[in-house]
Amino acid sequence: MIILGGLPELPPAGGEGKFYNTLVAVFGGRVVAVYRKIHRFDATLPDGSRASESDVILAGETPHVLAAPFGKIGLSICYDLRFPELYRALSAAGAEILVVPSAFTLLTGIDHWEPLLRARAIENQAYVLAPAQYGPHGHGRHSFGHSLAVDPWGAVIAQVSRGEGLALTWLRADLLQRVRSDLPALTHRRLHGVTPAEVVTLSAEETPA
Fold first, then answer.
1. Which residues does residue 3 pair with via DSSP β-bridges, in sequence order?
2. Domain count for the chain
3. How far apart are CA 18 and CA 37, in angstroms?
4. Confidence (pTM)
């Protein structure tokens, strides 16, 4: 299994100068899954620079889980990592491995990259594999790198600490099953689908002096 992404993909209708950020999974010499990144990175960074992915990137719409012979793989890309509802949808569809190929910026990656990856692993009791682009590339961008693999307990089991490199690890089905059996949080879910939160508003009269 080879997972490639994100790759620029022109939409069928041309997209009026925009394209999809697309992940493809290749197995047995053929493309077996295609996922288009749902969330677009529009933000002002700590150094004052601005990222506006929506200017050039079209939003995908559909989460994808690939049922491979060795496990069910939830597909995502980079900025998707900040949206736990996507990973809950992947988990609910049976995902045991979550892949997050990324080019996190240096300024956001320093503080957020590892905590977010470990959170997604813990919340969904799944392996998280996150290959990450490193170094300067295009239009003054500098990506954080630090490729990581996280186990279903939230422990980092492989990483490239800085610069270019390769991280290798084993994924243990027995560990996955033990974590889910000993702490069956996924079976304890009570809020399924889109469940609106109740908002309670206090009036000024009710506020203690």
1. 25
2. 1
3. 13
4. 0.91
